[in-house]
Design goal:
CATH class: Alpha Beta
Distance between the termini: 32 Å
CATH superfamily: Metal-dependent hydrolases
Number of domains: 1
Number of strands: 8
CATH topology: TIM Barrel
Bound molecules: (1E,3Z)-4-hydroxybuta-1,3-diene-1,2,4-tricarboxylic acid
Number of helices: 11
Radius of gyration: 18 Å
Structural class: alpha/beta
CATH architecture: Alpha-Beta Barrel
Shape: globular
Strand content: 5-15%
Order of helices and strands: EHEHEHEHEHEHEHHEHHH
């Protein structure tokens, strides 16, 4: 892959660039695997970052994303609109247009989006909208506006992707359970992995999934959730091991409602940048049978994003 650049934008201080030379994974992905959570950033000189953004990334364009896809052994991508582009979906849509049908998108829209714009995004490969509740990433949007958007996209067969912190789940519960679409939760609702996997906090998340069959979870981002980090805690060469019990529990409890993605180019990481090849090698630790791996990487994303 070519190296990260930033054009005329200045990156947020401390921002780490994505890994230009990831390892080739030892784990062989099943044929047809989908990287169901990744982003494109710019390039900023072509697709400027949004004025309301909370960070300025380094550029991470479609060519680099597709090179990573091929290097890791994925067949397809789901490109999720990142907050640094606000509701300007042009970089994501341009990537979809270049992907030859091998990418779908999740957009960010405001209530002034027109039906024609939604239809045109559908034709381009968008299948969902993202609502972000992480306070360091976005300004507050009233729930009635979000509910109005959800009602508008439901007839298209789209779903809602949400990103939030575990402590905010009680407050968001009624909103989530009232949504008229499938709900996909980013990164397991960001559990605090220092707490027990069968403790009160994660049990609440499990209850949400158990009681509401329209809720799915991405079991991605060990690098973001881990406290132990990329090095083993007790000498075993096994990065992010503290996240395994959480992801594995979800994969085994809800095998038909889980997704996995690299999260490339890994926004807002300041301690370490994961090697995407090693992230792929994490998958067999959380989906331990071939049947579970196939559901996680192929069957589930294909049903949700290429079902039509
Ligand atoms: C992620 C996580 C983050 C950022 C965004 O849209 C975004 O800016 O999603 C984060 O900072 O935790 O999934 O990419």
């Amino acid at each position: 892959m070519s190296k990260p650049t930033s054009g005329h934008f200045t990156k947020t201080p401390g921002w780490l660039d994505w890994y230009a030379e990831p390892a080739r994974p030892r784990f062989r992905l099943p044929p047809g695997s989908v990287d169901a959570h990744c982003h494109v950033f710019g390039p900023g000189d072509t697709f400027p970052y949004a004025p309301e953004r909370k960070y300025t990334p380094c550029d991470a364009g479609k060519h680099q994303l597709f090179a990573l896809r091929d290097h890791l052994g994925f067949d397809k991508n789901v490109i999720v609109q990142a907050t640094c582009h606000g509701a300007d979906n042009r970089a994501m849509l341009d990537a979809l247009a270049s992907a030859g049908g091998r990418a779908r998108g999740v957009a960010t829209v405001r209530r002034d989006v027109t039906d024609e714009q939604l239809q045109s995004m559908h034709a381009a490969g968008v299948r969902g909208v993202r609502f972000n509740f992480v306070k360091r990433l976005v300004d507050f949007t009233p729930r009635d506006e979000l509910m109005e958007i959800a009602a508008r996209i439901a007839p298209l067969g789209w779903h809602v992707v949400v990103y939030f912190e575990a402590l905010d789940l009680p407050d968001l519960w009624d909103f989530f359970t009232a949504l008229p679409t499938t709900l996909v939760i980013d990164h397991m609702g960001r559990p605090d992995v220092r707490k027990p996997v069968d403790g009160v906090e994660f049990e609440l998340f499990m209850t949400l999934m158990r009681e509401h069959p329209h809720v799915w979870s991405k079991v991605s981002c060990p690098e973001r959730l881990s406290v132990g980090g990329p090095r083993a805690l007790d000498g075993e060469a096994h990065p992010y091991r503290d996240v395994v019990p959480f992801s594995r529990r979800l994969v085994e409890s809800f095998p038909d409602r889980v997704l996995w993605g690299t999260d490339w180019p890994h926004p807002n990481l300041k301690d370490h940048m994961p090697d995407d090849g090693l992230l792929v090698d994490f998958i067999p630790r959380i989906a331990v049978t071939e049947a579970l791996q196939r559901k996680l990487l192929v069957d589930n994303p294909m049903r949700l994003y290429w079902g039509d």
